[in-house]
């Protein structure tokens, strides 16, 4: 067994010392910190924000975790502090914003437009792992080699010697597990596993995340999956598969649009022979959210960035607007072309 001290040492010098020092100075000067995640937040965005909030609170800071959309209530089962999440800006003076799991201000829903006056002039630390991220903060810590933003934050907390407790560790491990699908995706590296090991040493429990996330399903979600599979189609000799969720399907399953569909994109990419799997989610009459999952040599971002989206190689997304039917056909054609280019 590797001694814990060796694990800690391996994780302590991964972020640019200059960036780490700049971020630490901003944190030290701040009394009240706003941590935000992207629109339609997933467990990496939420777990990263909550995990860092637990660490910074123990460091003596007042923290608020703001999401632009209501998070899926199912995440509350394995994310401590979930009940503290807010969706409206607090009526409090803020000294610092830490924007997590996206490298573009537009990815944070309406936060920077709705609260433009209140947030004006507040410095931003931007921490993200997506390959498409450019960063928009005064300090940008972007590392596409990290399998999850939560992995990067584990390094951040370790390198800055911020406090780590059981709740912080649980939230960060949730981000890593869900963005790697339990360490399955090829973005998982030795460093990812070391970060997970460190978090477990602080009391995080993998089973408490894996079971509710990937093994347990509400009856309504199972019904939705059944409806989705009736739309399943394939092309490119089975290398491209796709399915859709229509507005009617949410209603038939007794779900609010945009809920209960976690895990369906990953289910689709598990079809034998699939290299690109696409789920089209219609959440209103004029837009469709797209989730792309890939295997082998295909790159999900090569498809989604053509339509104003982003993400990383194995999982990416975008939103289709306007003539949705025509845009869907264009996206499928782009996916087929990408597959053909890999031959």
What can you tell me about this protein's structure?
With 343 residues, the protein is of the alpha/beta class. The chain folds into 2 domains: 211 residues, inorganic pyrophosphatase (n-terminal core) (Alpha-Beta Complex), CATH 3.90.1640.10; 123 residues, Diaminopimelate Epimerase, Chain A, domain 1, CATH 3.10.310.30. It has 14 helices and 11 strands. The chain has a 6-stranded mixed β-sheet with strand order 6-7-8-9-11-10, sandwiched between helices. Strands 2-1-3-4-5 form a 5-stranded parallel β-sheet, with helices on one face. Helix 1 packs across helix 8 and helix 7 crosses helix 9. The radius of gyration is 20 Å and the shape is globular. The mean pLDDT is 94.
How would the global form be characterised?
A: globular
> Which whole number gives the mean pLDDT?
94
Q: DSSP strand (E) fraction?
A: 15-25%
What's the structural domain tally? 2
Major β-sheet profile: 6 strands, mixed
Q: Helix- and strand-based class? A: alpha/beta
How many helical stretches? 14
List the strand order in the largest sheet.
6-7-8-9-11-10
CATH architecture of the largest domain: Alpha-Beta Complex
Helix content range: 40-55%
Radius of gyration: 20 Å
* Succession of helices and strands: HHEHEEHHEEHHHHHEEHHEEHEEH
CATH class of the largest domain: Alpha Beta
Q: So, the CATH homologous superfamily of the largest domain?
A: inorganic pyrophosphatase (n-terminal core)
| N/C terminus separation | 42 Å
């Amino acid at each position: 067994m590797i001694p814990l001290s060796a694990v800690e040492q391996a994780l302590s010098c991964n972020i640019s010392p200059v960036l780490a020092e700049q971020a630490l100075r901003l944190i030290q000067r701040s009394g009240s910190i706003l941590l935000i995640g992207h629109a339609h937040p997933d467990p990496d965005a939420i777990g990263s924000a909550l995990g860092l909030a637990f660490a910074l609170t123990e460091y003596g800071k007042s923290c608020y975790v703001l999401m632009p959309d209501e998070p899926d209530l199912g995440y509350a089962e394995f994310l401590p502090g979930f009940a503290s999440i807010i969706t409206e800006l607090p009526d409090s003076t803020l000294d610092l914003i830490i924007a997590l799991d996206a490298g573009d201000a537009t990815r944070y829903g309406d936060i920077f437009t709705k609260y433009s006056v209140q947030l004006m002039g507040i410095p931003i630390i931007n921490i993200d792992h997506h390959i498409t991220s450019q960063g928009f903060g005064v300090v940008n810590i972007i590392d596409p080699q990290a399998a999850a933003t939560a992995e990067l934050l584990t390094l951040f907390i370790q390198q800055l010697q911020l406090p780590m407790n059981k709740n912080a560790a649980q939230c960060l491990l949730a981000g890593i597990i869900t963005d790697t699908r339990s360490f399955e995706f090829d973005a998982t590296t030795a460093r990812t596993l070391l970060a997970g090991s460190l978090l477990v040493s602080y009391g995080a429990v993998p089973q408490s995340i894996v079971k509710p996330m990937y093994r347990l399903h509400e009856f309504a979600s199972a019904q939705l999956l059944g409806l989705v599979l009736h739309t399943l189609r394939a092309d490119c000799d089975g290398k491209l598969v796709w399915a859709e969720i229509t507005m009617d399907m949410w209603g038939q399953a007794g779900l609010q649009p945009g809920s209960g569909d976690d895990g369906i994109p990953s289910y689709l990419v598990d079809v034998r022979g699939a290299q690109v799997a696409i789920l089209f989610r219609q959440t209103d009459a004029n837009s469709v959210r797209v989730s792309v999952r890939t295997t082998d040599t295909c790159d999900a971002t090569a498809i989604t960035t053509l339509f104003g989206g982003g993400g990383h190689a194995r999982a990416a997304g975008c939103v289709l607007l306007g003539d949705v039917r025509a845009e869907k056909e264009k996206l499928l054609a782009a996916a087929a072309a990408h597959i053909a280019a890999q031959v």
